[in-house]
Amino acid sequence: xxxQESWGRYPRVEQRTHALTWRSDALPEVSGAVLPHGxxxxxxxxxxxxxxxxxxxxxxxxxxxxxxxxxxxRCEAGVSLDTLLRLAVPRGWFLPVTPGTKYVTVGGAxxxxxHGKNHHRxxxxxxxxxxxxLLRSDGSRRVCAPDENPDWYGATIGxxxxxxxxxxxxxxxxxxxxxxxxxxxxxxxxxDEFLVVAxxxxxxxxxxxxxxxxxxxxxxxxxxxxxxxxxxxxxxDRLPLAKSHLSHGMGLAVPMDMPAFCLNRLSVSAFNWLYxxxxxxxxxxxxxxxxPFFYPLDAIYGWNRIYGRRGFLQFQCVVPYATARDALREIxxxxxxxxxxxxxxxxxTFGDIxxxxxxxxxxxxxxLAMDFANRGEKTYRLVEDLDKLTREAGGAVxxxxxxxxxxxxxxxxxxxHSEFAGYIDPAFSSSFWRRMNPVALPFSLESERKGGAAAPxxxxxxx
Amino acid sequence: MKKVLVLGATSAIAQxxxxxxxxxxxxxxxxxxxxxxxxxxxxxxxxxxxxxxxSKALDLNDFSAHEALxxxxxxxxxxxxxxxxxxxxxxxxxxxQRSWAATEAVLRTNFLSAVSLLTALANRFEAQKxxxxxxxxxxxxxxxxxxxxVYGASKGALNVFLQGLRxxxxxxxxAVVTVKPGFxxxxxxxxxxxxxxxxxxxxxxxxxxxxxxxxxxEVYVPGIWALIMLIIKSIxxxxxxxxxx
Lengths: 463, 245
What we know:
The complex is a heterodimer of chains A (463) and B (245). In chain A, a hairpin with a 5-residue loop joins strand 8 and strand 9. Helix content of chain A is 27%, strand content 23%. In chain A, the strands form five sheets. Chain A has an eight-stranded antiparallel sheet. Chain A has helices spanning 81-88, 106-111, 119-122, 150-156, 191-204, 239-242, 265-277, 290-294, 321-336, 377-392, 407-413, 417-421, 431-436, 445-450, 457-462, and strands at residues 2-3, 14-19, 34-37, 53-56, 63-67, 72-76, 93-94, 129-135, 141-144, 165-172, 174-175, 180-188, 207-212, 224-231, 252-253, 284-289, 300-301, 312-319, 345-350, 365-373, 396-397. In chain A, 48% of the residues are buried. The radius of gyration of chain A is 22 Å and the shape is globular. Chain B has a single domain (3-241), classed as Rossmann fold, CATH 3.40.50.720. Chain B is built from nine helices and seven strands. The termini of chain B are far apart. Chain A binds chain B through residues 19, 21-24, 59, 62-66, 75-76, 87, and chain B through 34, 36-37, 40-41, 43-44, 47-48, 187, 190. Chain B: InterPro entries: KR_dom, NAD(P)-bd_dom_sf, Sc_DH/Rdtase_CS, SDR_fam. Chain B: Belongs to the short-chain dehydrogenases/reductases (SDR) family.
């Protein structure tokens, strides 16, 4: 047993690992539960399996086919988005949806139904997954598609790796004419201004997202910079596509765990002030390569070490427009009073395009992501409070970024969870799933609540 | 190397090498035992840009099939200018000490099958006066140690054979490259606890290919192993035999 970390480095659990090599191999026979694990970019415990075994998918990293005419790529589940970009961009194709790091696997992108800066236009990653193969512990293999085993397809997209092992998948890419993005930065003075600018931007821009200064209070609460952009229009030749890869990526690295005193209220506050004001309050336009536009943090290898040995907790919620203003004000205020305010906070709007995944996180509204250095109990309580606020606002918290949501919240956020539970592979489990389902109860939480009875004491104690 | 025969193409180091060759647009003839796995490697290479990929499922311990295999590779790719010989087994030293059959199996795969294949290939390369033969050996062949001397002997014998072959083919413009990896993190070593000396198959593949491009003679990959083996080789036998290595 050894400690295997998630990206937030919290919680720490002991587990075994088993490297997968060939997609035609059967699942290994091990005692205890297994869970597929890609590049470990999930922040909390959804990619961990304390006491069990992680099936490391990094060996399943082969490409199977790429059709440069249609932009359909088929590959094994352990292939990273980085590998797909290296294959596709020189041939005029790009990921239909990409998260803020390219160091995630296709399997992980499916399991978490990831979203990107274009949710209002494109929805989630799962919408572009044409087909995949699901290998179950009983040895069965199912090809899943919208019209073939649609229930397994819906359960597995956003299914947190619990329905079985995705061995390969087929993804529809989207065409681009060059690797550049025409980007505009627009400052906004507070949360209300953000809501206006963000909605406006959606009409003409495929990509939008905003950085928020989490320390600004009062009238400035929720001020920040909105980034919006589109892929640049065609040029005269295809040379830029052929030479599309920047060599500077991965040049910087965080060499060691940073000591805790480097990050404090003063340093975060100074950074945020400088970051906001370097703009002079005016919109700015420029042409940028896709790499720094989509993956600014990938340039700093191991940036999670900035938070030191104890790691950090990320919190990402989405709240519907009806409650967004008040709920986000409360969340931002609460977090700015916390032990250590968020260093990097991101606001974005989600559109109404539905995902095929039953447990998909994105839904129409405003999403806010923050990370908090782990300062123990104080931080845990803060994140739990933010979870409660989100639930009261009728929103949802993102399992891939979570380490503290309550089982009641999970049930409220994901109404199809009990239907989903029937599709979990009996040999598969995760630390997250056990946290959301502390014991196998002879009754369901929902029926308890419907009956008006309070949950029994023992159940509360188990959390 | 533009038209390359890869023997043992499903091994981790070979797969990583195949990817680099595919990205360069080489034509490849891949040989391995397992049909499905070989197909996975072939499709990966084709998707990554190989000009042509052919594959042949074969157990290389069947020596009688070697001549036909080499013929087939020459025909399929319209000639060959490179060979990467990557198949091999680690074996189990304790088992080998107990049983001649286990020892013989290691020697057959790692040494005899390589000699048989290289005999067929060397004659053709000598006749065409061109080509590069790259053979993956091991640092274990540099000195016999109690913990794996059967494997080490198979690789040591291979090294001497390659020295002779290199000497013979030098005048024919054929390069014979002996690649000596140290510890590599592959399925072959999955059961061994990893330390900092373990290199990734990708790193070894890059070293292998740059040695092939430079038509080197014997190379250690990663390079640090040249120093390590220099020290290990220089320990006097009277001392060495008492060490627990």
